[in-house]
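Issue: ligand-bound run for magnesium ion - logging full I/O for the record.

Environment: standard queue, default settings, no custom constraints.

Inputs:
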Amino acid sequence: MDQKMKEIVAHFCIRGNVTDIKPLGNGLINTTYQVLTEGDTPDYVLQNVNVAIFPDMDLLMNNIVEVTTHIRKKLEAAGTDDIDRKVLTFVQANDGKYYHFDGEKYWRMMVLIPDTISKTGVSLESAYVVGETFAQFQAMLADIPAQLGETIKDFHNIEWRLQQLADAVRDNKAGRVNDPIVQEILGEVNRRAEEYSKSERLYREGKLPKRICHCDTKVDNILFDKNDNVLCVIDLDTVMPSFVFSDFGDFLRSAANTTREDDPVTDNVGFNFDVFKAFTKGYLKGARCFLTPVEIENLPYATALFPYMQTVRFFADYLNGDTYFKVQYPEHNLDRTKNQLRLLQCVEAAFPKMEAFIKEQLA
Ligand code: GN1
Ligand code: MG
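Outputs:
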């Protein structure tokens, strides 16, 4: 066990004797470790937070502590059992803060929820339950008294993402812009720009509200138990005010893709309509009571917006020379871009079907 890591752990108020510290998970932004302790004391999750991406550690941890505390209270009020498995518990450092700065990096610690399963895909049964869970998540946070900040400014603002892409093309930092495939993808992205900026237009016109959302609801960020029940959502860094489209669309982006988001074989990519149906059914069951007609009407748009936004983000990062998302090989972000673009095309082809299904659900 690395001595330096052990010292970092020692700054937090944890219980038990540490026996091992090892890497955990596959996030593209932060770096995560598992901290094992002897005997019956809990194990922990230690994370090195990427402050190049989340620059305000105080705001970030304040949001997270407010959100987890609020959810915990709601679960308690509802008489839910096993609450420690249904909401994350963060651990204070010795100075009372919820993070530790070691002079170079920022660290935070949470209690590890044991016996969980992380997945990259979902079954139809769990898609329904996840839909209901996200509706409940949004409903639970609807009356949070604290004012939450934007941990990443304009995170899911598609106009801003398109601007970043335009800047990346102009700057051509990695010299990748003139490649014919890059030009072809640019054409596909640009001809849709106006159409997909709809959410921001509706917002400016006062027709679309922002609510507290998770904003990173990919399947990997959900913990399941051994019986495929949803326990809780993790990766709370991006919890902030956004359109409900964020959680709905971003979940389907990963769950309804017939392959993983970085599969380089685009023929493997497809839109699993059964997953869409099951998830939407569960989501509407829980969210119908608070969604506005504009929100409901635009759920098919939301399903397409997120593959579109992720195409734009992976693509801009590729053109910038891979400075944001972790890559394993030089063309990784390009492969992710192609994958998400193909998913977008599949989702677009299903628009009439999605609309008909939602109508049927509301009848
Ligand atoms: C990032 O941290 P991770 O891997 O769960 C990203 C999401 C992207 C996702 C794509 C803060 O999430 O927005 O949708 O990768 N998070 C941030 O896999 O940018
Ligand atoms: Mg993650």
